[in-house]
Each structure stands twice: as structure tokens, then as C-alpha cells.
Amino acid sequence: MADITIIENAADERIAEWLEQELARALAATDGPVTITVPGGSTPFPIIAKLLEADLDWSRLVVWPGDDRIVPEDHEASNTGKLRAMFEPAGAEVVTLTIMEQVPHFDLAWLGMGADGHIASLFPNTDPKLDEPRSIVRLTPDPLPPEAPFDRISLTLPAILDSDTIAFVIRGEDKRAVFDEAAGGKSDLPVARLLAGATQPVICFT
Ligand SMILES: O=C1O[C@H](COP(=O)(O)O)[C@@H](O)[C@H](O)[C@H]1O
Fold first, then answer.
1. Which of 9, 15, 129, 152 has its Cα between 20 and 30 A from that of 31?
2. Pocket of ligand 1, candidates 37, 42, 43: which has the most ligand atoms within 8 Å of its Cβ, to mutate?
3. Third-level CATH fold of 3-205
4. Ligand 1 test: best mutation among 68, 79, 153, most atoms within 8 Å of CB?
5. CB atoms within 10 A of CB 136
6. Is the whole model's pTM more than 0.95, yes or no?
């Protein structure tokens, strides 16, 4: 079972500071690129806005959306479009998630979670597996989430787990209960399957 550290009631500034430290450490450890995957939805963007105030060598950061909705990048539901609009002016690269991409090892895998226990776009109905041979898959959530009722593209569990550290931001009591059950091995939701396969440190900001 994963080694999970929970940081309670973390404000966006606190999470951005932690991300800055992680990125600074990774950048200092190499002359090459530092590669992270980040979530979409709504939770991460105010945190990313704070993070981008940091004085880092953004030109060496490669950002992979962990998932996206199958919509044009200028659609309001596009995770990639929002990430590109934020990270690219700072000098970072934002990858377009397609099933043709070769997914690298991530210095950091940052995840959100839905109240249904989905992570990235690995929804419960899609039965994500730890031994999935593909790194990126296209999926249809069922039921379609009303806030973003679109087909999806997503990193798979093995692709997310190929990372040095996993960080979650889980806001709200309903999500927290789902996360705690998963962390305790008491559910079989996608988040529980990921945690069951995690051998790296996991930090969860609530
Ligand atoms: O649809 C999605 O939802 C999850 C959770 O989003 P949140 O706004 O409730 O935190 C997100 O992690 C995922 O990337 C996104 O596509």
C-alpha cells in the first residue's frame, strides 16, 4: 500500500510553494528537461497561477495534461487549452495528448480526483488496470459527468505510476471520504487501484 502523507486544509499558496520546491529540486538535479503531468477540471488552475509567479527555469519544464476532454483546444472544457494559455507564456512546453505519444517517466504526477473516484479520465466504468499495456487511452465515461459530458483521452495507471512522486489535491468532504476509503484499501475505484500500485511517495493536499 502507498506511503501517503496528508496535508490538511492546504491553501492554494501552500500547494504552489510545495510544487515550486519539487520543481526547483528536479531542475537542479539535471541540465535537461523536467517532466510533469498535471490535472484538469477546475481545481488546479488557481494553484498553477500562483506557481507561475515562481522564479524557475520554465523553459526546461515539459507539462503533460494527465487527461483531456475530446474538444478543440479553444473550447472552455479543454484542459490542454487552459494549460497552454498558462504555461506557454512562461516558456514551458505543453504536450498535446494523443494516443501516438511516447509517454516519458514523470518527475511528478499531479492528480485531481472526482467524487466518483476517477483520476485523470479513468472513470469507474472504464475498469482501469495496473497491467494496462497502453500508456494513453481514449474513453467514454458512463455516466457522462454533467460538468464535462465529453469523450476523454487519458494517461493510464501504469503511465501515471511511472513517476517519482504523486501529488493529489482533494477538496471537499465527499471527495475526502472517497480518498480515505481508497487509501485504506476499502474500495476498488480507479483511485484505489492507483494507490494500490504506488511504490513512490504520495502526498495529498486537502
Ligand atoms: O474531469 C476531470 O475531473 C477531475 C476532477 O476535477 P476537479 O475540478 O473536480 O478537481 C480532474 O482531475 C480531471 O483532470 C478532469 O479532466
1. 15
2. 43
3. Rossmann fold (3.40.50)
4. 79
5. 19
6. yes
